[in-house]
């Protein structure tokens, strides 16, 4: 069974940093792209970042570009999101999701998310 | 960047067919994926590549894609289908690789 478990969320003041983690199990992690998607309270899904299986290709949404950095450690079956210069509008539930085998842009399994609250 | 447009809400009576649209410029040239999100839960993929269903998703869920509109079709709607639904594409045009979501549609079962 595919499992994705996010951690690292919490409350933080504007301008500070936070690092999220996502640990994968139940599949060969280094064969797949993985993604970060967030959802602000009461709002829709917003893409944050994607990283290819070998980290050669990494993309970011416009709202986080230059502030967030995605990385992965295939040996640890883990995905990371380093979030710097946090803003109130970054407050959201952050999900990690696995890309499918046939299409990296199909998010076929999702974690339950970790909540990030940015407030003074 | 590419934009996907969904109606905020759709209502349907139990047993009827729900159609949730997703509009985008020449969306037929993209593979469209659909996610169901129940309240307080993570999204679940219900249709991928326009028309295919992951294992475990009922046959009542289907999709189509033509011209500028993709559609999620839910036949014989049940109370348990009440949820938010999101369309999504992978935009790999130009020099970027972006996941794009529609704004979401709340399906209400009357």
What can you tell me about this protein's structure?
The complex is a heterodimer of chains A (120) and B (110). Chain A has strands spanning 3-7, 10-12, 18-25, 34-39, 45-51, 58-60, 68-73, 78-83, 92-99, 107-110, 114-118. Chain A is an all-beta fold and 120 residues long. In chain A, strands 2, 4, 5, 6, 9, 10 and 11 form a 7-stranded mixed sheet that branches. Chain A is built from no helices and 11 strands. Chain A is globular. In chain B, a hairpin with a 2-residue loop joins strand 5 and strand 6 (69-74). The model of chain B has no long low-confidence stretch (mean pLDDT 96). Classes of the chains: A mainly beta (120), B mainly beta (110). Chain A binds chain B through residues 35, 37, 44-47, 50, 57, 59, 61-62, 95, 97, 100, 102-113, and chain B through 1, 31, 33, 35, 37, 42-45, 48-49, 54, 84, 86, 88-90, 92, 96-104.
**Average of pLDDT of chain A:** 96
Q: How many strand elements of chain A? A: 11
Q: Indicate the low-confidence ranges of chain A by residue numbers.
A: none
Strand content of chain B: 35-45%
Q: What's the shape of chain A?
A: globular
Assign a percent range to the helix content of chain B. under 10%
Alpha-beta classification of chain B: mainly beta
Order of SSEs of chain B? EEEEEEEEE
Order of helices and strands of chain A: EEEEEEEEEEE
Can you summarize the main beta sheet of chain A? 7 strands, mixed
Tally of DSSP β-strands of chain B: 9
Secondary-structure blueprint of this entry?
The complex is a heterodimer of chains A (120) and B (110).
Chain A: E1 3-7, E2 10-12, E3 18-25, E4 34-39, E5 45-51, E6 58-60, E7 68-73, E8 78-83, E9 92-99, E10 107-110, E11 114-118
Parallel strand pairs in A: 2-11
Antiparallel strand pairs in A: 1-3, 3-8, 4-5, 4-9, 5-6, 7-8, 9-10, 9-11
Chain B: E1 9-12, E2 18-23, E3 33-37, E4 44-47, E5 61-66, E6 69-74, E7 83-91, E8 98-101, E9 105-109
Parallel strand pairs in B: 1-9
Antiparallel strand pairs in B: 2-6, 3-4, 3-7, 5-6, 7-8, 7-9
